[in-house]
Amino acid sequence: MAGSVGGRSIAVPAKGTRPTSERTREAIFSRLVHYDVLDGARVLDLYAGSGALGLEAASRGAVGVTLVDSARGAVEVAKRNVATLGLGGTVRVVGDDAGRFAAGLATAPGEPLDLVFLDPPYDLSEAALGGVLASLCAPGVLAPDAVVVVERSTRSPEPAWPDGLEPLARKDYGETAVYYAEPS
Question: Which residues cross the membrane (predicted)?
């Protein structure tokens, strides 16, 4: 981890997740600093696993972070990581299906999100990923200058960006492709 909790490590679920490598996470956050999206950000981390991406955002100046995962083990580990790092006032953990959670944002948005991470299992279908991305495009869900970060296998096709999201960049790190998009 970097930022205010720099040098501290976090727990990862014993099974069922594919943690983002430290190298990839550093590269993602370097780009996000370049996009100037972290300070004061409202962040959503879907398919959060251990919560590493959302926790890193919190440690780098995000004011509100929601970690969402459907796996009970991942939710428990994420909650422990939040407590261990002392980020309970900034980060909340939700046990829910990412698609259902995103659809709920579309029907009852709160404050617009500045940054959204999606790191789904590589075997998640393109249709399911497209549905989650489409939900983020509902009015009021994303801030006008928001950034959406999607991690996929380099063997997977580029996400089918729905109307309302426009790709910014793609960067590959080993077997991981990281896509950046913004509201159009």
Answer: none
Tens of pLDDT along 27-36? 999 999 999 9
Are 58 and 43 a contacting pair, CB within 8 Å? yes
Q: Do residues 47 and 97 lie in contact, with contact meaning Cβ atoms separated by under 8 Å?
A: no
Domain boundaries, the chain: 29-183
pLDDT in tens, 159-182: 999 999 999 999 999 999 999 999
- Report which secondary-structure segment, H or E, holds 13: none
R_g of the chain computed on alpha carbons: 15
The answer for residues whose C-beta is within 8 angstroms of residue 93's C-beta and 6 or more apart is: 48, 51, 66, 67, 69, 75, 78, 79, 82
In what order do the strands lie in the sheet containing 113-118?
A: 91-95, 64-69, 42-46, 113-118, 142-153, 176-183, 165-173
Assigned CATH class of 29-183: alpha beta
